[in-house]
């Protein structure tokens, strides 16, 4: 069987275990290891309040090599004060000791779950020990890792891309957990990616930032990024390619495959978002500049009334126009137009006659595109959104207790 | 029986009828008349896309006197192009002819309902005629008006304030319709107020702007103001008070009563918001400036995860902190604190031990206050929010069809 998990690139082992952090008893501790050391890049939440794990990983990412990533679900270790920081460092130190990495700084840490409660460190440390014992390059180990990082996700989300760079086979793989508390600017919650490409650290960071910017950062589920969002990319350099040291065509090839992988993961997250039954893409064009286009697209994707209309298969395009108009982006009311896939419903500021049943069929697809033309310029941008269902309310009205 | 409707101030008549605009056959046309002419002030949506009614009323409000306000529900007459403007003007002209007002410009118009469909003008004009025939100063006529302006509201919402200004009895009354598509900056949908005070037009406008700014503009249900939001205040001058011509203590007295009335109406709107079962006030203090405080308060009140937690009675304060942190307002993470009513749950960047059952009881009240201290300055502001329930989804997934 082909390995399509984060252990498919050469040089990586993974594991996922039940540490007992989650009351449900489900898997809640994941470990990713690169014994020879990996070049690492990461992107973190832009939320001003960051989890202890994010604070610690922000420091550790500066290390020349990263040997392991330890992740727990069930507890975000956020808003936990100084004790939270100490616990996050302890997770790194404990992992370093077990994977034979000299320094705690060679380990990255990520946490996700409830905010404001101290980590049960006894469970966490014994979980790390158990995970170390199960580290493996198999696809089942990769799947265990992808499962252990889940919170309200209903399924593990993974993707892999295989490409050739100057005749050398290179693999990139990723696992992601999402589900809720997702807003543009690091719509990630947690994303871990591995590759065996040989590449310089600044170029790896550049490729990651661009890929996330056009994928995970474009997804909004409920409009706010969390305190814990983290995307980590480890490169083992074991593929055997001549190292990428400049923004050459080989870099572009790698960066494009990475971007495609991230887009795949973002879409998987959208379709597994809390209560979501379908997703949509909002494309805004004809904007004065790209920032305006991005803002208008996000206003539509975040608008509860649009999300409800998508849920109900209701071609209520007035809500789309209302959302765009409520922003301060420049637009020309007399040139404003709107399309659902290729069906124009509003053109140059006036409604069009269209078949509502056809419109409804478009909306009820798993994925459709809302295109809004602001009629003022030539810039465009997009945003992914999901529908709002009763299940979102059910899931989130009682998550704590 | 005391008249607590918009016909209670001297000089006003009202009516509400079934014109057949709504498919349900419910009342959908309201008429408010001031035969001797009223001094008028209005505040309109800040949405860039405005309904035809808003465009026309924005012009007509400049008239020295207003003799009538005509309102329809069931159709927003928004995104309807030039024909929409013509229809809005026709509504004013037709009303003017029937209430013996010389100019169409002496009539204001408001519409609410589905966006993007042409008004059924035959039904509207015969409805206006029927309403004219039923104009009356009775409280039942006032109630008919308050009922006719409703859309997804479950009950008419009215308030009255009686005060003395230098020994003269003055009355202010209002009727409002809300329910959905409500966001700060004219969280109004439609609000009509009457008073018999004698006051100069610029002072009436100033009092209205301030009152709306601290009440209806502070309420968010789903984060966006609509294309149609309108608040109109008519002053007949029939109370017999010495006219208010300056920002004197008598002005302040009137302005405070008006502000109190608007706050009452805003709270009624919140509790009758689509699917809402309870409301909350977010107070942000310790901010660098008032704009920051307002932005942070709104971020909390609009955050679906906070709204769901309030619905579930769940003291998940981490979501409150997350919402504040996701904004760009200045804050001191080490001094950040949060309270539910008088129960502190987070102090100086660290969680507090508290009784979760007590916290849950606080949240499950019809009204509770979330206080966040940003720990950076001395400014404060607030926002009203409502919980997010499954009924919101039910109501809005199928409104169109």
Summarize the structure.
Two copies of one chain form a homodimer. Chain A has eleven helices and 15 strands.
| Strand residue percentage of chain A | 25-35%
Contiguous uncertain segments of 5+ residues of chain A: 184-188
Helix content of chain A: 25-40%
CATH architecture of the largest domain in chain A: 4-Layer Sandwich
Note down, in words, how this protein is organized.
The structure is a homodimer of 401-residue chains. Chain A is an alpha+beta fold and 401 residues long. Chain A has two domains: 13-271, 4-Layer Sandwich (L-amino peptidase D-ALA esterase/amidase); 279-397, Ubiquitin-like (UB roll) (Roll), CATH 3.10.20. Helices cover 33% and strands 27% of the residues of chain A. The first copy, chain A, contains eleven helices and 15 strands. In chain A, the strands form two sheets. In chain A, strands 1, 2, 3, 4, 5, 6, 7 and 9 form an eight-stranded mixed beta sheet that branches. In chain A, strand 11 and strand 12 form a beta hairpin. In chain A, helix 2 packs parallel to helix 3 and helix 5 (201-213) crosses helix 6.
Based on the model shown, name its key terms:
homodimer, 401 residues, alpha+beta, L-amino peptidase D-ALA esterase/amidase, Ubiquitin-like (UB roll), 2 domains, eight-stranded mixed beta sheet, seven-stranded mixed beta sheet, globular
Set down the secondary structure blueprint.
2 copies of one chain form a homodimer.
Chain A: E1 13-17, E2 29-44, H1 52-60, E3 66-75, H2 81-98, E4 107-114, H3 121-134, H4 139-148, E5 157-165, E6 168-177, E7 190-195, H5 201-213, E8 219-220, E9 230-235, H6 249-271, E10 279-287, H7 290-302, H8 304-312, H9 318-325, E11 337-340, E12 343-347, E13 350-351, H10 356-363, E14 367-373, E15 379-386, H11 390-397
Parallel strand pairs in A: 3-4, 7-9, 8-15, 10-14
Antiparallel strand pairs in A: 1-2, 2-3, 2-9, 5-6, 6-7, 10-15, 11-12, 11-14, 12-13
